[in-house]
């Protein structure tokens, strides 16, 4: 057995066996039992070399377990085309990281070409960090991918130092550059090394968060907060909110005031955003402050304006969904192409992006297209629905759409009735079944109208039960007349009074 094979066995031994077991099972990363494996050679390593190899072992053993854990998640949730795109993003992030360490472009390119296994490992890390986002069908932005991968790379570099390039190129096969020394003291057995000495990337990341927070908590010798923190407090951000951002996004603590934060804030102010709204925007999307104006923000806005997005709406759009500016133009174009594919004219595409900018965050294949197929199977005009209620396409088919469909079918409506209702009121499916549809349905049954009245006026479900429906209906009932739902609910107070008086006169 080669040294690297022995290392694999020891990694699984340390991770899988119990110290209380008299005869622990030693297995490889493929769970193949290895009986009578001798690990005495580890005791012959110098202590520094031993600890370095042990860290590498843990890294490899962790990777070996991922196909069993994260692999199923990745294959089940992330489509092949998205995986391919994320792989390219991961390569770009790793290339940039290597260059920052002083590696030339040519060497970085050669390293990337030999690092498929390590790239796959980075993707598994990404999917582990953002699992919840994938489960609801939301794709990650380029910045989110970068923010998940770079801290992990930094932690590996800090641990493995000069062996970092070897780890990248040979992963999961571990580099062994130290020769065994037969004269070393055999008393330094591997099993005697406390596990607490083994540093992990997660621990390093926690350490980075603590160091970042210290920039806000500890004023240091100057007695002052960093300039960009002072600036943010001056424009209305709460210090505790800034700390919360740093806990989630440590890099924010090190942003330059003049190079990053101030130019972005001034850029937002120039768009017409109120200074009082800036704290809310930064709280929603602190990564926005780390994006290049010239390379990202301005080109993205120009792209959207070319689509017809009204410049006068920018302040409202960004306040509602600041993440819009952090998506790549490739992602923006994919969503826009889908809207055109569904039959929306250009003026409607711009309105959809203005009214519901977060539609950009939904996966085209896993969310938008599958939702379109669901409504198409019902006979719904997809272009009309997208135009009227684009927010519907962010809902879960299983958790939101199907239960609403079943509710109406169970209460005597046909699929054709439901299609008509959706075409007349696209927001119908956006309401909570338990908190909205059912209570209003139960009250509707007491009003004495035929069920067909809701097919004619499904907007009934959009009015407040306590503030609009019940008070207006009581007035009509007390008057001894009957008005259609549309007249009861959609008219202004003045027009409602006029309609009621006209009806009373006819009695």
Automatic annotation (TrEMBL):
Disordered: region residues: 176-203
Keyword Transcription regulation belongs to the record: yes
UniProt keyword annotations, A-Z: Transcription, Transcription regulation, Transcription termination, Transit peptide
GO molecular function: nucleic acid binding
Highest rank taxon of the organism: Eukaryota
Gene Ontology BP terms: DNA-templated transcription termination
Name listed for the protein in its UniProt record: Transcription termination factor MTERF5, chloroplastic
Family listed: Belongs to the mTERF family.
Keyword Transit peptide listed: yes
Annotated source species: Lithospermum erythrorhizon
Source taxonomy: Eukaryota, Viridiplantae, Streptophyta, Embryophyta, Tracheophyta
InterPro entries referenced in this protein's UniProt entry, alphabetically: MTERF, MTERF_sf
């Amino acid at each position: 057995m080669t040294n690297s094979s022995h290392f694999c066995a020891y990694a699984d031994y340390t991770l899988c066996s119990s110290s209380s077991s008299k005869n622990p099972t030693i297995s490889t990363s493929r769970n193949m039992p290895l009986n009578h494996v001798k690990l005495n050679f580890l005791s012959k390593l110098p202590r520094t070399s031993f600890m370095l190899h042990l860290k590498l072992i843990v890294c490899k053993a962790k990777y070996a377990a991922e196909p069993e854990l994260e692999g199923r998640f990745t294959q089940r949730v992330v489509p092949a085309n998205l995986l391919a795109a994320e792989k390219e993003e991961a390569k770009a992030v790793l290339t940039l990281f290597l260059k920052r360490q002083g590696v030339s472009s040519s060497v970085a390119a050669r390293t990337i070409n030999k690092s498929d296994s390590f790239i796959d490992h980075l993707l598994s890390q990404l999917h582990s960090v953002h699992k919840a986002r994938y489960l609801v069908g939301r794709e990650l932005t380029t910045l989110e991918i970068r923010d998940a991968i770079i801290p992990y790379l930094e932690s590996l570099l800090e641990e493995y130092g000069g062996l970092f390039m070897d780890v990248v190129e040979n992963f999961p096969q571990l580099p062994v550059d130290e020769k065994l020394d037969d004269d070393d003291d055999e008393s330094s057995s591997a099993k005697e090394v406390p596990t607490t000495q083994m540093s992990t990337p997660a621990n390093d990341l926690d350490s980075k968060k603590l160091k970042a927070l210290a920039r806000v908590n500890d004023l240091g010798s100057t007695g002052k907060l960093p300039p960009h923190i002072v600036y943010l407090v001056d424009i209305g951000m709460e210090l505790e909110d800034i700390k919360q951002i740093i806990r989630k996004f440590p890099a924010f603590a090190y942003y330059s005031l003049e190079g990053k934060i101030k130019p972005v804030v001034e850029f937002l102010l120039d768009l017409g955003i109120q200074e009082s709204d800036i704290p809310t925007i930064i709280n929603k999307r602190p990564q926005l402050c780390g994006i290049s104006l010239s390379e990202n923000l301005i080109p993205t806005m120009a792209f959207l304006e070319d689509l017809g997005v009204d410049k006068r709406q920018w302040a409202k759009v960004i306040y509602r969904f600041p993440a819009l500016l952090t998506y790549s133009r490739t992602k923006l174009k994919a969503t826009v192409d889908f809207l055109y594919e569904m039959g929306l004219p250009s003026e409607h595409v711009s309105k959809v992006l203005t009214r519901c900018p977060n539609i950009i965050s939904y996966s085209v294949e896993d969310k938008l297209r599958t939702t379109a197929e669901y409504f198409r199977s019902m006979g719904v005009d997809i272009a009309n629905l997208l135009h009227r209620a684009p927010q519907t396409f962010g809902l879960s088919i299983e958790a939101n759409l199907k239960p609403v469909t079943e509710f109406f079918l169970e209460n005597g409506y046909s699929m054709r009735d439901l299609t008509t209702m959706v075409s007349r009121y696209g927001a119908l499916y956006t309401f909570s079944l338990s908190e909205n549809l059912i209570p209003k349905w139960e009250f509707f049954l007491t009003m004495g109208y035929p069920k067909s009245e809701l097919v004619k006026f499904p907007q009934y479900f959009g009015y407040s039960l306590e503030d609009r429906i019940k008070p207006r209906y009581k007035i009509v009932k007390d008057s001894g007349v009957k008005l259609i739902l549309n007249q009861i609910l959609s008219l202004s107070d003045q027009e409602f009074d006029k309609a009621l008086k006209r009806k009373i006169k006819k009695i």
